[in-house]
Structure formats: C-alpha cells, structure tokens
Amino acid sequence: MQAPTDPLPPYDFQTWWACVGEWQAVNLALATIAALVIRGFALGRLPRRPEEGQGRRWLRDVLAMLVALVLALGGVVLGGAMALVAHFRISVFMLPAAFAFYLCGLCLPVLALVPALTRKEWLRVATAAMPVALSLAMLFIEPNRLEIREETIELPTLPRGSRIKVAHLTDLQCVEVGERDHAAAAAVDRFDPDFVAFTGDLIATGMHPTLVAHVRAWLAGLRSRSTRYVVNGDCDGDFDGLVRDLPGIEYLKDRGMAVDIRGAKLWIAGLDNKKRPPDPALALRDAPAGATRIFLAHNPDYFAHAWKGGEWHAELGLAGHTHGGQIQLPFYGAPVTLTKIGRRYADGVFGPEQFSPQFQWRVDRFVVCAGLGMEGGFAPRVRLLRPPQVMLLTLVGPEK
User: Fold this and answer.
1) How does the average pLDDT of the chain come out, rounded?
2) 150-203 pLDDT per residue, tens
3) Which residues contact 182 (CB under 8 A, 6 or more apart)?
C-alpha cells in the first residue's frame, strides 16, 4: 500500500470508472429501460391522435411520471423493509433508491423534455425541467456546499478555564479526493485543533490502489497539534491497511489513550465498529479516575443501548454514520438515517434535555456529524438540504 509521502498516482478516468462509474452506468441503463417502458404504457393509455393538442401531450407526460413515482417509491419501501429485516444490509435499500432517483429525476423527465423543447411547449418544458434541475442540483451543487459548524460544549469534568479544540470529521465515503475534501482539510488547518477525531468510513466502495493512496495522503495531511484519532466504519474493506503506518494517526480499535492537554486529563477511546457483538466497555475499562472520557464510535446507536459486555459511561460521544440523512425534506427532516435512535438525532449536538427516555443513554452529551461524503456503490451520490459538514468543537470546563 502506497505511503502518503510517495508521489501520488494520477486519478484518471479508469480509476473513476472502477470506483463509481460502472455502478452508475448500471443505474442509468436500468432507469432508461424502465423509462421507455413506462412512457410506452402512457402512450397506451393516452394514444397519440391526429392534431392532438399540447394539453393531451402534457397529460401523457404527467401520467408517465406519476406511474414512475409510484413504482419507484414502492421499490424503495420494499428495499427498506428488506434491509430492516436483514439487519440494515444497505445495498438492498440503495439499489431501488438509485433506480428511483435516476428514473424519476433524470431519465423519464429527459424523455419528456426533448420533444417538448422541439415543439416549444413551455408548460411541458417546465413540468419536465423541474425534476431534472432538482436532480442536477442534488448531484453537483448540494454535495459541494460545505458547512463548517462550530459548537461550544461544556463538560463539567474538565478543569475550570479549559478550552480544548477538536475537529470532528466523518464519512469521507471517498470515490475521489476532490475540492470538497480539500476545503474541509483547509477548515481544519485554520481551526488549528488540539486533536482531530475521524469516526469511520473513509472509502465508499472498493479499495482501488490509486484511491487508497489519495485517501491516505488526505488523512495524513490533516493538521493537528497532537494526534488524529480514528475508528473504523461500515464501508472500509481494510481499514487497518488504510491507516497503517500513517504518521500522527492513532487507530482506536476497542482501546483508549490517556491524553493531557494543558492540564486537562482526557481518555480518548474508540469502538471497533466491525466487531460482533460490539463491546464499548473494552475501550473505556482502563480510563483513569477523574479523566474526561471521549468516546468515538461510527454509529450513534452505541450511545443509546445496552450491549453485551461490561457497563460503561462517557462524558462525550462523537459519531457519524447518518450523513445527516443525506436528504432532508422541508418540515420533516431526514426520511432515512439507518439508525435505531431515529431521525431526531440525524446530526447535531445533543445533551440530556434532548435525550429520549425510551433509550438507555451511556453518554452525557454526544455529537453526530453529517459527514463529508455520500453513499457509494449503486447509491446516487446526492444530497438535498443537508450539505456535507465539518464539526469544529470547543470543549470548555465549568465557568464556576
């Protein structure tokens, strides 16, 4: 595996195709075939007539889009139900989600848009252009609208007057280290944190050697006054290999480390997300008395449930996994977070006042970062009303 100090190999079209292109080609092919079939159905229900008016052609477009929407949403719901039964095997859900997006957002509207433009039928143009415009925004605008969120969190166990700066990053889900990722690294540099916490999912899908080299270089280049602490996620095939021998990186795999930052005693611990059953207590059992325990886990569910193993408690938990829902709907929020604690905790900073009594909370406060990337594989790499995010946290001691 290439060290980050070596010259980086060029990220070319072949690399992109191997990392994500072939998946999206399958998506587009399936969606195009389905769009042609559904358009044929609409023509069957509302066949062409000599000298037919614009209204009938518009009605045929609307009928096709409604049929596609019903079929696509049915597939997404079915895939979600199957994923739930199969303990969140995410590919079962992501394939119909990708099919729904490309069918309803691109392929079928484009089939309607082209003849509408040639006839200059502006009502049809507007009807077909709206989902295309929204889809292009979700693909190319929202994923690059980076949010830098700064929060101050008071921890009573810190010494009075303490100020500890932590950069929390998660879910790079990389298929290419692009401008968004470099902008996130630059934000971390400006913040000049005492340490960086990365809570899993560096690579979206596959371990292409060129991509691995670029991701390792990105991670090794994150500035920190002390160390970058990382835990594994769901998608990284060989996380141990990804972070092996990187300078300044501590991989917390069911273990913790004692850290002293200007007199503040910390125990920074991390969970092995791939271990089944998980045992968060392993990483916290050696924490010295009086230390402020900061627990890194990929999935925030670990903060809210009793797991097999010992009892445990931490003053602060840091997690990712949700992507903030990746897509949020107005007045509703994130339809999907793939967590048991639900969309209420899709992203943000949470304390006891927000804790639902139905869960067994093991942390005093926790942070869920919306992450930098998007799902990989068949999933469309889109965001909507939930931009990628870097969390810059300042942990402070009590004022009195």
Assistant:
1) 92
2) 999 999 999 999 999 999 999 999 999 999 999 999 999 999 999 999 999 999
3) 218
HSE at residue 374, side-chain half, CA atoms within 13 A, is 25
Reported as a single tens digit per residue, the pLDDT across 227-272 is 999 999 988 878 999 999 999 999 999 999 999 999 999 999 999 9
Task: Assign 88 a pLDDT band (cuts: 50, 70, 90).
Answer: low
The whole-angstrom distance between residue 90's C-alpha and the CA centroid of its chain comes to 13
254 token code pair = 């069911």
Ranges of CATH 3.60.21 domains, the chain: 148-396
CATH, range 148-396? 3.60.21
Asked if residues 188 and 223 have their Cβ atoms less than 8 Å apart, the reply is yes
Has residue 2 got a pLDDT over 60?
no
pLDDT attached to residue 186: 97
